[in-house]
Structure formats: C-alpha cells, structure tokens
Amino acid sequence: MRTQLVLRRTAVAATMVLACSAGLVLSGGSAQAAAAEPDGTINHSCGPAINVNSTTSRHVVTPAPVGGATIRLEAGRSSRYGTTYWAHLLKARKGSSVWMDWSDDGGHNWHQCGPYSVDGSQGAHDRWTWGVNWVGGRKFRACAHQGYTHCTIWK
C-alpha cells in the first residue's frame, strides 16, 4: 500500500513537471508570436508629461498640412528634462485632434501621447500635447486628424 502511494505521488509529480515544461514551451512560442506581431502603438503615454509652456528656445522641427490646418513637431528646452518635443495643431476646426508618437526603436513601435481634441482650452483653433524628453536615439512625429489623419516624418 505504501509503495503504491509513493508510486502514485511520483507519477503525479512527473505529470506536473511535464505539464509545466509544456507550458514553458507553449509560452515561449507565444512570446515568439508576440514578437512577430505588426509594428504599432505600445501605449498612450506622454512620458514625464512636460508642460511645454515652461520650455525655452522653442522652435518648429517639422510642419505639415492636414485638412486646412497645420500640424507641427516642435521642440524646446526644459530646465529639468533638457530637449523636449511636442505636437502642435494650428488653425484647426473644433473637434480636430492632435497627438505625438515617440519611439525608442526608430519608429517600429511607439508610445502615443494623446490624442487631444481642439476644444478651446488652448485657443479657439489650437491644441498641443504634453512634452516628452529626448534621450539618445528617441524619435518623434506629430500627428493630427482633421477630415483625415496625417503625421510628420519621424525626427
């Protein structure tokens, strides 16, 4: 009787080890499948969410037209975070939206800061995003939707 109990426990333990091993193999396959998924948005993050009104040395990095409005990737200097980027939509209709994509892998995957709607809170026809700090290799692009969606090139 005692030998049967020991054999049964051993068999259960072996079954559990095999099941766990199979689970690891399956989860490894899932990780490989996830790595092969299409490029795209990682999350909706504005990083440190820097208030762009506190930046200095502001300048336009790259502008682009979008449905009669202008979308611009802008940059400035934050005393705490250094070089900072944000998206700015100008001369837009109420309800249009603006966001900034930022990527640490050259634009294959990105964080999306926004979207933010033109609602009169930053001027009747303007809206901008929070700022995100630049670190080595990080890329940015400004995007907007006003009738259709358009983004600047990655910078």
Automatic annotation (TrEMBL):
Q: Where in the sequence is the signal peptide annotated? A: 1-35
Sorted keywords for this record are: Signal
The keyword Signal appears for this protein: yes
Please verify whether the record's keywords include Signal. yes
According to UniProt, the name of this protein is Secreted protein
Q: What species does this protein belong to?
A: Streptomyces orinoci (Streptoverticillium orinoci)
